[in-house]
Amino acid sequence: MNLSIAIQKRLSATFALEVKFSIPAGITMLFGASGSGKTTLLRCIAGLLRPDSGEITIGDQIVFDSKARVDVPVRERRIGFLFQNLALFPHLNVVQNIEYGLNGLVRSEAQQRIENVLKMFGISGLRNHKPNEISGGERQRAALARALVTDPRVMMLDEPLSALDYATQSQIIGDLRAWNAVQRIPILYVTHSQREVFALGERVVVLQEGKILAQGTPQDVLEAPAYESIAQLAGFENFFDATVLSLNADSGTMLCRLDGAKTEVEVPLSRVEVHSKIRIAIRAGDILIAGEFPRAISARNVMPARIVSLRREGAMVIAEMDAGRSFEVHITPGACESLGLKPEGQVWLVIKTHSWRLVAGGAVSGHEP
Amino acid sequence: MDWPAILLSLKLSSLVCGFLLLIGTPLAYWVTYSRWRWKFLVESVVALPIVLPPTVLGFYILVAIGSRSPIGRAWAAWTGHGLAFTFEGLVIASLLYSLPFAVQPMTVAFSQVDHQLIEVSSVLGASRLRTFFRIILPLSINGVITGAVLSFAHTMGEFGVVLMVGGNIPGVTRTVSIAIYDEVQSLDYAAANGTALALLLFSFAVLSVIYGLNRKSLALWPLRR
């Protein structure tokens, strides 16, 4: 089963969804900031919103074709859709919610399916409970069960787990994976959480301002992001404009200087020329802090820095460092304490060459990195 | 006490209430979900009886169902008698007069049903009819009950329209409010008092039973917590 989409949908004078992609069976993450058009795309596929033009094909059935005037109604598309707020029917209990989509099925067959899905999602004990009588995680399971029990040809999930704690999230993700190991249908999973992309996705499609910015495996797209906007989404906190000083093909590195500072850093070699302007990025968690100058160390970038500020956020300390340019560095509270870090203190920042990423500035539509 | 008039009013109100559930529910559904650009015209027409003096409304209904109008003639050709000053004519007039009191609470209740529930219902393969009876109606049942109660009560108490369209024919169009008016006109205060008291107690009893049975149905009172 394949899902192919090539649609245009203008939502306002400044925003238009314009996408063309195809996804195979398995979990594809739809990744993008809020307002990038993720939900609009799902609604078009489900038939809740009519695209201005284009085609949508599920398996071998064309469900939408603006030229041939095909527009299969929502209720005949056989799609599973898990809404962000779940949309469980508040006046029906768990079993009634689940059997709602099985109207028209032989009674025994429906009963069989309901038992299976209740067991699969571990909610057999909640049959007669109303949605407001069960926990958030249980509601999630019930809504997922209600969608999957109808045997959909495509499953779409709109940021379904964002409100749950991590343990519950990964359990539900595990259940979904197990279910799809048997069914093998395309699953489109909307998220803006990078962790969910890595935990779940076999593939990722990055959406920005209604256009597809990149697609591929999570590793390809998010670990080595080619565009700054993806890098930002993927949790890169530090971006610098820099000028290439020298290329070293033997070691696969190049030396460059951060613009507006004397700071020189060694970064992975790229196909650029000496003196050209580049943009580089580093994750705040990939920067080490040393209390004194480290003598024997493999990392090639060691630079003196002054602590500007330290701020505790959850189980993490966010340090702002001045090393010619401002760096954001994330460390644990324990490390912060044992190093005796204080504002105005002097430290050394240590960065491995290959932690640096080269990124391109804006979005280039239609280009796949 | 004028028992025939009380019974006639009860019969009229029950019929009107029943018909309004049949006519008003689809109309309220249409008003809630239609995206027709001239919808506001229909809304205005439905709401007219709220602002119009009953005599004005009654006058136009009388003209519309009179023996010279197409409706009146069609009715006469079908049944052999006219519509004006008959019980049937009264039912038609009351339907129009009480329509907004049934439709408005229903429309409010329908529009408060979370739209995502309706979408998920169609994603799950349900037709519009199934979505209406399984999701929208159960979740807005209080508004429907309210609409029914209000239209019933409103029909019980109507005076001007009845007088214009039905006149004052005992056992046919002489409703309770006409009877009370008549009794007062003939200075029979004891009879007027008896009929009025019966109407008052009956209305109070009906409302008490409905509010008591369904604590969440807020016809006029905010939700109790």
Written overview of the protein:
The complex is a heterodimer of chains A (369) and B (225). Chain A is of the alpha+beta class and 369 residues long. Chain A folds into two domains: 3-233, 3-Layer(aba) Sandwich (Rossmann fold); 238-358, Beta Barrel (OB fold (Dihydrolipoamide Acetyltransferase, E2P)). Chain A contains nine helices and 21 strands. In chain A, the strands form four sheets. In chain A, strands 7-8-9-3-10-11 form a six-stranded mixed beta sheet, sandwiched between helices. A five-stranded antiparallel beta sheet of chain A has the order 2-1-4-5-6, with helices on one face. In chain A, strands 14-13-12-15-21 form a five-stranded antiparallel beta sheet, with no helix packed on it. In chain A, a hairpin with a 4-residue loop joins strand 5 and strand 6. The longest helix of chain A is centred in the middle third of the chain and has 18 residues, at 166-183. Chain A is elongated, with a radius of gyration of 25 Å. Residues 362-369 of chain A have low confidence and may be disordered. Chain B is mostly helical. Chain B has a single domain (3-213), classed as MetI-like (MetI-like fold, Orthogonal Bundle). Chain B contains eleven helices and no strands. In chain B, helix 1 (3-33) crosses helix 8, helix 1 crosses helix 10 (176-185) and helix 3 runs parallel beside helix 9 (160-166). The radius of gyration of chain B is 20 Å and the shape is globular. Classes of the chains: A alpha+beta (369), B mainly alpha (225). Chain A binds chain B through residues 46, 48, 73-81, 83, 85, 87, 89-91, 100-101, 103-104, 146-147, 150, and chain B through 114, 116-117, 119-127, 130, 134-135, 138-139.
